[in-house]
């Protein structure tokens, strides 16, 4: 027997945490009865419905997507803006993005229907590194970069980049291109770091997610993750590997 929220996550309904909320809100039935208790265990023979629609075990899929700017990292948007799943019209599984990228930030994001992997990769304790390239106003000096290297408080939490360096600078236009690696990637975290030292971000791209890089992908393009890559992600996230 397995916990209900785990079965829902495996079926691609939502991540385990989001599935828990769906259960608590009374949207789930097991064998025709509404279940709102977390930790409820179910058998393979049990019939599970979400909003009166039976769930089925989906084949788990994993995509690496190069999100363009001005695209929402969500399944749907109440303002009817373009979302990341709009780029996957032929995918029949109910995929969703792992974590988020800001609306005006481009770069790598994973989409999957593996709720467990999503839950682990977005949990702060696993500290998955993410590398960004930022074009900023002005050219930070060594003292300002040292402030970032030693750690800066963002929304009450200290953020210490693993790596930060200037890739290019243009004194005439007074801009700099800077690469940095952080672990958590919380909401607007990178932008707030540069605002702190007085160099607002003009453009921002996530160029690497853990060991995954953009490679030959162009904005709006995606590729399947290979089994070895999925297994490596699962190892990072403390999940069993596929054989």
Automatic annotation (TrEMBL):
InterPro entries, sorted: PsdUridine_s_RsuA/RluB/E/F_cat (IPR042092), PsdUridine_synth_cat_dom_sf (IPR020103), PsdUridine_synth_RsuA/RluA (IPR006145), PsdUridine_synth_RsuA/RluB/E/F (IPR000748), PsdUridine_synth_RsuA/RluB_CS (IPR018496), RsuA_PseudoU_synthase (IPR050343), S4_RNA-bd (IPR002942), S4_RNA-bd_sf (IPR036986)
Its EC number(s): 5.4.99.-
PROSITE patterns: PSI_RSU, S4
Pfam family, one: PseudoU_synth_2
SUPFAM superfamilies, A to Z: Alpha-L RNA-binding motif (SSF55174), Pseudouridine synthase (SSF55120)
Residues annotated as domain RNA-binding S4: 2-61
Keywords (A to Z) from UniProt: Isomerase, RNA-binding
Transmembrane segments: none
Example of a GO MF term: rRNA pseudouridine synthase activity
GO terms for biological process, alphabetical: enzyme-directed rRNA pseudouridine synthesis
CDD domains in the cross-refs: PseudoU_synth_RsuA_like, S4
NCBIfam families attached to this UniProt entry: pseudouridine synthase (TIGR00093)
Entry similarity comment: Belongs to the pseudouridine synthase RsuA family.
PANTHER family: PSEUDOURIDINE SYNTHASE FAMILY PROTEIN-RELATED, RNA-BINDING S4 DOMAIN-CONTAINING PROTEIN
Protein's name in the database: Pseudouridine synthase
Lineage: Bacteria, Bacillati, Bacillota, Bacilli, Lactobacillales
